[in-house]
Amino acid sequence: MDRKRAVIVTSGFLLFISCFGMWSLWEPDRTLSEFENRVLAKFPSFSWDKLWSGRYTDQLDDYLVDQFVGRDNWVGLKSDMERMSGKTENNQVFFGSSGYLFERFIYEEEQLDQNIKQIARFAERHQKDVDSLSLLLVPNSQTLNGEYLPKYAEATDAPQSPLMDQIFSELSGRVAPVDIREVLQQKKSTTQIYYRTDHHWTTRGAYYGYQAFADTIGLSPTPEAALEAKQFSDSFYGTFYTKANQRDITPDRLELLESSLPEYEVCIEGQNRCENSFYDMDAQNERDKYKVFFGGNFPLVTINVAHEEVNKDRSIIVFKDSYANAMVPFLAQHYSTIHMIDMRYFQMDVDEYLEEHHFDDMLLLYSVATISQEDIFKWLN
Known about the structure:
The chain is an alpha/beta fold. The protein has helices spanning about 1-25, 50-55, 55-65, 70-85, 110-125, 140-145, 160-170, 180-185, 205-215, 240-245, 330, 350-355, 370-375; strands at about 30-35, 40, 90, 95, 100-105, 130-140, 175-180, 230-235, 250-260, 265-270, 275, 300-305, 315-320, 335-340, 360-365.
């Protein structure tokens, strides 16, 4: 009886493996996992050198894992089981309450110190060339929504507020700090400031950042009531959702806040044409719907607005990461010329560029994570 049972179990297992194997062979290979938002491995090319070194078998293993039939469902099921077992974190992403996801924040003190010094060197050279040189830091979601973090998460997550104090203090006298923490804290009870499934601030959060910047340099910000809200998507899943592989999360709502503007054009370096909109509406059909703002991140974006008012015949250059994409459209109310530079991709000499183009104002707009973690500010010098 035991032998018969063993034969049945073994036969069933082999049948199960064979069916999945045949199903995997029948299904065409996929190039992208929408659920994980990453490119999947392709069938590796064979060579004796690769076989001898072990690279071929490693690549073949990656291919079989990535192209396994129903992969997205299996990955999601694994995450569901871990969540049910009480696990509160996956791939450095915390499962918070009220549907919020948070990314664990860690940084190296040495990298932060280097970045502060690089920004200081840059500011010392150029602060006299402009009417204002400002630094706007965007904290992460848990700085504002820490009450939604899972229990014990704070003990493993470095707080960003002290880092903001440190950065502003060490750059004092060189850049004007735009501290948005207080205004965001005031608005959070009535407005969603950060997406629940993504690391970015919402368009409303970006508006309050713009409002703080305008107040800092003496501009009159456009009233929130004068903006027209348009829903772009009610099915936005961001980077945290992708990393956590958590399927049972309600998607975010992504809205645009538009104001009346004269004719303007947006030109992106490397493209042969300019657009008359800040928004790429084709992002509606993409996995990353945050690309609605300018179509994503580029080395250089220039914006020209046909203002007739003399007081708006001004220019600003914005050194930025992706948080700026949702805020810069508000600046078009005050400037005829806006240049956005993303140092992650920009390859020109910054000093030469600033000599060639004169700007009235300069803004450095970055998340605290970028200044604490990214080795990009050396390119300012």
